[in-house]
Amino acid sequence: MGIVFHLDIVSAEESIYSGPVEFLVAPAQMGEVGIYPHHTPMLTKIKSGMVRIKAQLKDEEMIYVSGGMLEVQPDVVTILADTAVRSHDLDEAKAIEVKRAAEEAIRNRQSELDYAKAQAELLEAMAQLAAIDKLRKRKH
Amino acid sequence: MAGSREIRNKIKSVKNTQKITRAMEMVAASKMRKAQDRMKKARPYGEKIRNVAAHMSRANTEYRHPFLISRDTVKRIGVIVVTSDKGLCGGLNTNVLRKVVNQMRAWQTEGEEIEICCIGNKGLGFMSRVGAKIVSQVIGLGDTPEIAKLIGAVKVILDGYMQDRFDRVYIFYNRFINTMKQEPVMEQLLPLTDERVYERDDSNRKPRMAWDYIYEPEAKPVIDDIMVRYIEALVYQAVAENMASEQSARMVAMKAASDNAGNVIDELTLIYNKSRQAAITKELSEIVGGAAAV
How big is chain A by its Cα radius of gyration, in Å? Predict the structure, then answer.
C-alpha cells in the first residue's frame, strides 16, 4: 500500500471523480503540475486539458476538464472543474448579450414600477388558486 | 333527447382534457426525478467551493475580496428572480413573485433603488408588465439548467456589485422541500454572509490559522475566480432547486386537474342518466296515457 490522498473532481453540474489516488497531473496555468501526497497547500487555476490520475492498483486514467481551479491540501485535493470554456472575453460577450435582451424587452413599456398593477395581478392569480382549492375540498 | 346529446359531447370533451392533464402529470413526474437528481449532483461543487472560500477567508489576510466586505450604506439593491419558463404549475411562480413584490415595496419605501435580473420566462413577463427595472434576463433554460447559460446574467449582477451599482444582491427562488411542498425563499447573495462562508465547515474542521495557500500565479486573480464561481454555483443551485420545484408543483397541479376532471365526468354522467331516465319515463307515460284514451 502506497501513500494516497483523496481526490475530488467536481463540476457545478455533477461529481466527476471521487476516490483515493497516488498521484495526479493537472494542466495548471503556469504549466503542468504533478501532485503527490502531502503536497503543500496550493490554489491555482487550471487550463483546459487532460488530468492524469493514478489510483492504486489501477492504470492511469485521463479525465478532460475545460478549465477550473485546483485546490491542494496535504491529504485532500479538489478540482473544481468548469463546465464551459471560460475566458474574460467570452464571459463579457455573454453579459452583453443578456443585457441587450433585457433592454430590448424594456424599450416599449412604461417606466414606473406599478405596484397596484402587480398586486392586482397577483391577487387575481391567488384568488383563482384559492377557488380551485376550495372547489376541491368541497368535492371530497 | 336534445339535452342528452349536449351532455354527451361535454363528457367527451372533459375526458379529452383529462387525458391531456394525465399525460402532463406523468411527464412532470419523470422530469421531476431527473430534476431532483441534478439538484443533488450540484451539491458537492457548492460544498467544496465553500470550503475553499472558508479556508481562504481565514488564511489570506493581505487581500480581502469585495464580496466578503459588507457595506454600511445600502442604496441600490440587485435582485435575481428565479421562476419557471412555463406555467401550469399551480401557485409556484405566483408565490415567489408575491414575495418579491412585497419585499420590493418595503425596500422602495426605505428609498432604495432596485434592479432586477430575471431567470425564467414567467418572472420576466410579470416584471416587465408591472414595469420593474430589468437589467438582464435569461429565458428558455429547458429541462437541463446549464451553468453556461447563467454566466452572462450573473456577470451583469457581479459587475454591478463591483462597480458599486449595487450594494446588496438578493436571490428569490422556490426551495424544494419535498414533492408536496415548495417554499419561496429570499437569500442574500452579496455580500457573502458569514454563514454562507463558514457553515458546516467549522463543525468538522478546526481552523488552522498558521497556513495559507501558495497561489499560482498570484493571490488576487485566483481568489477573484473562486469567488465568481462560488456565486455562480449558488445561483445554479437555486435554479436547479427551482426546476425540481417546478416539476413537482406541476405534477401535483396536473394530478389535481385530472381528479377534478374525473369529478366533473361523474357529475355529468349522473345528469345524463337522469335525463335519459326522465325521457323514457315520459315516453312510457305518454304511451300509457294514449292507450287509456283509446
Answer: 26
Q: Report the residue count for chain A.
A: 140
**DSSP H or E stretch at residue A85:** none
Q: What angle do CA A46, A50, A51 make, to 5 degrees?
A: 75
- The sign of the dihedral angle between the CA atoms of B25, B29, B30, B36 is positive
Predicted ipTM?
A: 0.77
**C-alpha cell belonging to residue B188:** 442574500
Give the containing element (helix H, strand E) for A77.
strand A76-81
Global pTM reads: 0.84
Beta strands in B45-201, from DSSP E residues, in sequence order? 76-82, 113-119, 134-138, 168-178, 181-190
User: Which grid cell is A97?
Assistant: 448579450
Nearest to A126 by CA among B104, B253, B92: B92
CB pairs under 8 A between A and B: 172
Residues 62-121, chain A, touching B (beta carbon < 8 A): 69, 71-72, 78, 80, 82-84, 86, 91-99, 101-102, 105-106, 109-115, 117-119, 121
**In the beta sheet, which residues pair with residue A51?**
A63
Residue B218 C-alpha cell reads as 498570484
Q: What is the pLDDT of residues B113-136, one digit of tens each?
A: 899 999 999 998 898 888 888 888
